[in-house]
Amino acid sequence: MTPPDDGFTKLSQSRASRTSSPRQACTLSTESDSNIERSNSIMKTYVLDTNVLLHDPMALTAFNEHHVVVPMTVLEELDAIKDRRDKAVSREARIAIQAIDRVVADASPAALQAGVEIEGSVLKGECGRLSIYPDQCLEHSGDVPYLNDTEAKANDNRIINVALRLKAQFPDRFVALVTKDINMRIKAKGSGLDRVEDYRKDRVLDDIDLLARGHCHVPGDFWAGISGVETLREHGHTLHRVERSELPDCYPNMYLHDDGDFFAHVDRIHDSHALLRLVSREALLNQHYWGLEPRNIEQAMALALLANDEVDMTVLTGPAGSGKTLMALAYGLHAILEEKRYSKLIVARSTPPIAEDIGFLPGTEEEKMAPWLAAFDDNLEILHGADESSYGSIDYVKERANIQFKSLNFMRGRSFNNAYIIIDESQGLTQFQLKSIITRVGADSKIVVLGNLAQIDNKYINPLTSGLTYLVEKCKSYAHAGVMHINGIERSRLAAFAEENL
User: Closest Cα to residue 279, out of 303, 262, 298?
Assistant: First the structure.
């Protein structure tokens, strides 16, 4: 079946073009018809850089009904990357290649030039289209800006040239280059391309200040702003039923408090109403787990989430020194050694060396990871510093609590049942990495994800694209997850000064 012509560039099938030179054979025609006019007025064209497909291998489906162009140079780079020793990036390259192959597998060369439908790009209506652009045989045209492809950044220049050529061929169409490379965006703009964008599908927020914090302060008297409320008893607790229109931004396991004595936990959320359970501020501040008591109300709310049997995953964010790791560890030891709720405590932490490999030199996994997991030994010393023999107590606790240090790379493919799992420094993880870890959590287990978005070491991730940000926003509406941002710094007055002023 002849594919529909959406007006995109296509190879001339004439005898003259078949017998001309290779460069002339790749010269793209710009014939016009009604389909072209429709496409120019409605459909947008996005030229993808290689790093977009490495960042999100399924990016082809992220542009809805619009036209996605993958230059041949991008395919060449993906082909070179898929065999690298860097396991994570090579895996993403292979997934991206397979995703492209699924779209173009049955397409003819002419159809591939005109654009092949991308299934899954929209739920209903017209699908998006994918074209492969043969940029390896573009030649310089005097009326179109052109970057020299013999320079050190030849591949970047060739991809930019594709966007420049398409914009020159279709001046009335929206043509944009999409790349994660900041310098490449600057080069493209400097070359005359007016639309250059970052890939934003992974951004769940426009401003990091909008990130869910797990609690909300209501000025004045909370009940004064509520027009109607119903009270009911359930399992020994008093619940207050409030219309969702009164609390449009609340989510499960969130805490609400006002300027007075009101303090409530959002027990459940329904389509038309929310159920609030009143809690005592004093009771929250009087929690006691493994010798640790909260020093501020945010720590108290975090401990309450950790101790909540209905919460399978707790995400704690906040600056360095806010007590995230200490609280997660203290409650974990309490739950394992005193309540006998879990059989082991698994600790993992994100660092660049761990993310890929921990090496082949002699030593166990725990021994190789010891330098990066020393923070947990520091926190154990805090919890047992007053013991007569602190080091003996720490060794005893490690053995009794069955504390295991794991590499994130080796957690894939496993299933952790009846375990208390702590993932520290998660702000440097991608969405894919966090998903692969959370899906390892088995029956009767709890996972605690910790992170500080102000201390991201991964050069490819920022606070808006961090997997931690994505996790907070996606899981906040899940009934069995809890989120808490702890703002107070309790490590020392010097640490508080450094966080605020340095």
Answer: 262
Residue pair 314/484 in contact by the 8 Å Cβ criterion: yes
Please identify which residue in the block is written with the tokens 């069955």: 402
DSSP 159-204: HHHHHHHHHHH-TTS-EEEE-S-HHHHHHHHHTT-S-EE---TT-S
Instruction: Look at residue 86 in the predicted model and tell me its pLDDT.
Output: 62
On the question of a common fold for 10-197 and 208-220+295-501, the answer reads yes
- Whole-prediction pTM: 0.72
Regarding the domain with residue range 208-220+295-501, which homologous superfamily does it belong to in the CATH classification? P-loop containing nucleotide triphosphate hydrolases (3.40.50.300)
Query: What is the predicted pLDDT for the residue at 372?
Result: 61
Q: Do the beta carbons of residue 498 and residue 229 sit within 8 Å? A: no
Instruction: Read off the tokens for 372.
Output: 């990066």
Tell me the mean pLDDT in the region 452-460.
Answer: 81
Spacing of C-alpha 4 from chain mean position:
37
Contact 332, 422 (CB under 8 A): yes
Residue 383 φ then ψ, to 5°: -70, -25
Q: Which of 96-100, 353-357, 389-393 is the most confident on average?
A: 96-100
Q: Which of 303, 232, 218 is nearest to 264 (CA)?
A: 218
pLDDT tens per residue across span 64-85: 889 999 999 999 999 998 887 6
Domain 10-197 annotated CATH 3.30.360.10: no
Token digits of residue 162? 């594709």
- Report which of residues 319 and 139 the model is more confident about: 319
CA distance 345 to 331: 11
Other CB atoms within a 10 A radius of the CB of residue 33 amount to 10
User: Which amino acid makes up residue 116?
Assistant: V
Average pLDDT, the chain: 81
